[in-house]
Design brief:
Number of domains: 2
CATH topology of the largest domain: TIM Barrel
CATH class of the largest domain: Alpha Beta
Shape: elongated
Bound molecules: phosphoenolpyruvate, manganese (II) ion
Distance between the termini: 39 Å
Order of helices and strands: EHEEHEEEEHEHEHEHEHEHEHHEH
CATH superfamily of the largest domain: Aldolase class I
Strand order of the largest sheet: 13-12-11-10-9-8-7-14
CATH architecture of the largest domain: Alpha-Beta Barrel
Structural class: alpha/beta
Number of strands: 14
Radius of gyration: 21 Å
Oligomer: single chain
Helix content: 25-40%
């Protein structure tokens, strides 16, 4: 349900509506509906509950939501969500460029790469301290020391940082060191993890599961939002198909489809979709062309020595080229990379 307050409702009336919602055993979520203050109600089971809210002073109307995802839906919030995370703004119509190594391997490696991507125009740093690897024998990440390195690199270069959380026990720890928590494709439906990450209240980058539908992806966003996350960005990183010419199949069709029904920003990960350096730029441009709000790109200056995903990492020079051509595509669309200083 969505309780829409009249434009002249008072704080007291809003509080009264929230108290009634909690007396009924439900949760309230503050949202905006056009120019109205509105309260998203979750946990309700049937239509009949409306009558306890409809007659309250200050309540304009109560709307029953038709979709199983509520807080992520345009029914609850018709306008696009816009989030500012340090120097990066998601959802304002421009393109955020997130770049960095797949994994934090050492302080020296991370500082080197961060400096290079920052100089070339990235607005945000990526890097994994906890790596979900297919093989138990592969490099699993540096753990907390890796988070410390990321925090140092972020601070030195003025870039906010996003890093993956792989288990509920370390959600709070990753939140202490970073600006945004990443849920990887393999964990998109790890509901215990989603709840814990939501409870940190940090912005979240939610990667689409490699075989998840749009609706399943939004239900996972709903787990995060109903547990306290207010800023959720979806990431399309390719899905599993019969095609073997790329690591995954980049499904750009999800971008307009998601934007039609959800107010959440969506970005593209062209590195994990392509798996090969040569196709990272084409995947990036396709994503921007389809309306993505940003890109998250693997960059490594010594890809042959990379402990994770070297073949898909762009060199810093190739990252410059990506910035260049992306800027041109953005200009043709009336957008910029990053928000222009006003
Ligand atoms: C990553 O971004 O490092 C990663 C592991 O991505 P994904 O979950 O999309 O495979
Ligand atoms: Mn990777």
């Amino acid at each position: 349900m969505l309780v829409i307050m009249s434009t002249d409702s008072t704080e007291k009336q809003i509080q009264r509506a929230k108290d009634r919602i909690s007396e009924m055993g439900y949760s309230s979520h503050t949202v905006s509906w056009h120019d109205h203050y509105a309260i998203g109600v979750t946990g309700n089971k049937g239509k009949e509950d409306r009558i306890y809210l409809e007659g309250l002073p200050g309540v304009l109307k109560v709307v029953t939501l038709s979709k199983p995802y509520k807080l992520a839906s345009r029914e609850v919030q018709p306008e696009n969500s816009v989030y500012r995370i340090g120097s990066a703004t998601f959802g304002d119509g421009n393109v955020v460029m997130i770049a960095g190594p797949c994994a934090v391997e050492s302080e020296e490696q991370t500082l080197r790469i961060t400096e290079q991507v920052a100089q070339r125009g990235a607005q945000m740093l990526r890097g994994g301290a906890y790596k979900p690897r297919t093989s138990p024998y592969a490099f699993q990440g540096l753990g907390e020391p890796g988070l410390e390195i990321l925090a140092t690199a972020s601070e030195k270069n003025g870039l906010p940082v996003v890093s993956e959380v792989v288990d509920p026990g370390t959600a709070g720890l990753v939140a202490q060191y970073t600006d945004m928590l990443q849920i990887g494709t393999r964990n998109m439906q790890n509901f215990i993890l989603l709840k814990e990450v939501g409870r940190t209240g940090k912005p979240v980058l939610l990667k689409r599961g490699m075989s998840a539908t749009l609706e399943e992806t939004l239900m996972s966003a709903e787990y995060l939002m109903s547990n306290g996350a207010r800023e959720v960005v979806i990431c399309e990183r390719g899905v599993r198909t019969f095609a073997s010419h790329a690591r995954n199949t980049l499904d750009i069709s999800i971008i307009p489809a998601l934007k039609k029904i959800s107010h959440l920003p969506i970005i593209v990960d062209p590195s994990h979709s392509s798996g090969h350096r040569y196709s990272v730029i084409p995947h990036s441009l396709a994503g921007i062309g389809a309306g993505a709000d940003g890109l998250i790109v693997d960059v490594h200056d010594r890809p042959d020595e990379a402990l994770c995903d070297g073949p898909q990492a762009l060199s810093p020079e190739q990252f410059s080229e990506l910035m260049d051509v992306s800027g041109k595509v953005c200009a043709a669309l009336g957008k910029t990379i990053g928000t222009e200083a006003t």
